[in-house]
């Protein structure tokens, strides 16, 4: 085992042949927990290095968001010497992760059977857009999956067009599911010595992530439609106008609604036969909404936020991303961690004994190529990743990688923030 860091995954080596978002996000999470991640890039680098603006020191902040705690080595898989390095890395790694189109790495001897032949207990994670069967040839961009999964049909005003979510939500969720699968496979390997192939795809992740909306159809026979900011089953559960702006107001059960009615000065609403159950409030929301709006119009959103929060009622303002970061700072969550002069967002998981670590800034292209080659050749141990300012000087680059850019299956070329 390679142990050059602390953390619950210390000693685990990850060969990261993924790019853009889903895979790199997954491997960053593994790296935060102590895994040693070697990021394999084509000669032009990960596409997101050049996705600007926004930019910091010549590098797209998209790249900076998901690539800390990694080593970078540039390999052209069409070059025999570089391919030999890739094969050697696959033989040494505990985990191999890639997001090429299904079958795209077979010609390089980097598909699951080939990697398994080099290391029988490897954990091999494949990320695709639509699975390895009927959807194998479909490109896996998050925006496409948002549309094809049904999410966009749920997003926007009832009388308006469908909208995409503000982030590449299914890339992120697929990354999370990939980590869950990898951790479970590692646990199984610890118990049995057996490796395995872990597969995730954006469409299956999307249908799982839609949760109650998917269940409304498969279990209830109901096809959900766009409701703006409203909730299919609850009211109030949406932004409501106050005296000077909107405030999100939630009453998720009868007790909360009773307390809300009391705070708003109308305790009789809780016993009104139109509003005394969740189902009735939902059915009669068009009668209840104007009553709520009239009461809320008497004070500002900030005033109501204080009053309702003091009463223990769920509510909140609609912030910008800046407002969200500042809120986390005020609450003592310390959301920003600076590594080598690069601000990054803190890993959201807390551990009492083995907290996430922030060892190195997102690497420059091929920053660690020589040391990784020496390690694979047996000439030197893999040195500890160190925090430095080198990543601040990395040059952005775009274009297809040496393995054939068309083979990368999960990305979000239109999503840059």
Automatic annotation (TrEMBL):
Biased composition, class Low complexity, residue ranges: 403-417
Amino acid composition bias (Basic and acidic residues), ranges on this chain: 367-376
Keyword Transferase: yes
SUPFAM superfamilies given in the database record: CoA-transferase family III (CaiB/BaiF)
Gene3D superfamilies xref list: Crotonobetainyl-coa:carnitine coa-transferase, domain 1 (3.40.50.10540), formyl-coa transferase, domain 3 (3.30.1540.10)
Annotated keywords: Transferase
Superkingdom as given in the UniProt entry: Bacteria
Membrane-traversing stretches: none
Spans annotated as Disordered: 353-417
Keyword Membrane: no
A Pfam family of this chain: CoA_transf_3
Acidic residues biased stretches: 389-398
PANTHER family recorded: SUCCINATE--HYDROXYMETHYLGLUTARATE COA-TRANSFERASE
Protein name, entry field: CoA transferase
UniProt GO molecular function: CoA-transferase activity
